[in-house]
Amino acid sequence: MTMEIRLLEESDAKAYWALRKEALKQDPGAFGETYTEATSHDNPVERVEKTIKKDHEHIFGAFINGWLLGVATLTLETAIKTKHRGYIGSVYVSPDARGNGAGAAIMKEIINWSREHEELEKLDLGVFTSNEPAFELYKKLGFEVVGIDKKSIRDEDGEFIDEYLMTYLL
After folding, report:
1. What's the confidence (pLDDT) of residue 141?
2. CA separation (Å) from 121 to 45, 46, 56, 77, 150?
3. From the CA atom positions of the chain, what is the Rg in Å?
4. Interatomic CA distance for residues 168 and 125, integer angstroms
């Protein structure tokens, strides 16, 4: 198995969109957006291409044997008072790639990339309290819980889900 972790390019947009749809079907409770919402937009691949081109959004991907099987997005704050912060979201590793370190590798690459950008001082993320494997990974990598967002989202069954708010100081 060969694994490459890198920033996505416009040419990766179609693969990203396929993985995003898989993520929303496989783990609907892990995301704030539903599959129906995500697929209701016109030209979704074009939307991904535009996101990839943004200066303040960086999508990191895990390519295993050439296939995109894991992703995470780092969104940089642009306001003067908060541009020392980055937010990690939309983290997903395909069931086909779980257990081989892809999630940890993506997160480590984001941390390393962020350390190289002097303006960044901290990384924030949110993880649903029901997502124990992700929570444990983030703790192992050095993220600390700074709070709990009660009733963060309401799932499709109407049940509320709390979210751990976590920070990593660079």
Report:
1. 98
2. 32, 32, 15, 11, 26
3. 16
4. 9
